[in-house]
Give the backbone structure.
Amino acid sequence: MTTTPSPSTDDPDQTLQAASELLRALASPVRLGIVRELSAGGKYVHELVTALGVSQPLVSQHLRVLRTSRIVTARRQARETRYTLTDDHVAHIVLDAIRHAQE
């Protein structure tokens, strides 16, 4: 996945392309789960592994996609890396989608 440039508000096609790339980056149950978990605050990989019940390599692979798409950021703290959402907008999208699916 490539890094998405900030869309120009003057170009509707570019804005739609950027929105499409955002949704593509979220198009995985594991990535949706990661965003849901991070909506409550920053977490380490081992915390995400426990919360999601999937392997560490799988979580790391999905975090890489989310980082490349600038949905999450990583900050090294001692021997671990703490992941946080870049902003709350994506959390709202994901949490609304999850609530909608539960209706």
